BLUF domain-containing protein (Aurantiacibacter arachoides), 117 residues
Amino acid sequence: MASSMAATLVEQSCARNKAMQITGCLLFDGDCFAQLLEGRENDVKLLMSSIGRDKRHTEIRVLERRFLQTRRCAQWSLGYFGPSRLIHRVIQRTMDEPTSQVAMRDLTELMIGFGNE
Ligand SMILES: Cc1cc2nc3c(=O)[nH]c(=O)nc-3n(C[C@H](O)[C@H](O)[C@H](O)COP(=O)(O)O)c2cc1C
């Protein structure tokens, strides 16, 4: 997906997420996306089924599902960060080591860290 298409996707996603009170973050390394979504359980499930039907994806992996007391990306309907070497490295590591808790923690912390800059 081209970066201009990603911008349109984020704009449309923000509007829908806001309406559903979903917050989150989307990272793009030029090839793969990594996304964190948070909200009411049913709303997140509904959104995940929309995303699952989206033909722009070739493969979707759910890396983690969990209940949270407080949102970690409360300030964003969908924060977006485009291609960089850091983002590529962190996403690739989670792809290469899907069961690694360290890789997962680094990915999550990168997203939350962007939000708290
Ligand atoms: C990488 C990626 C991330 C997406 N994230 C969201 C999102 O956070 N919120 C959203 O409403 N749509 C998101 N979409 C778009 C959905 O897949 C879908 O096209 C849109 O929600 C409309 O769903 P519908 O066809 O069920 O109406 C994303 C699509 C892609 C490719």
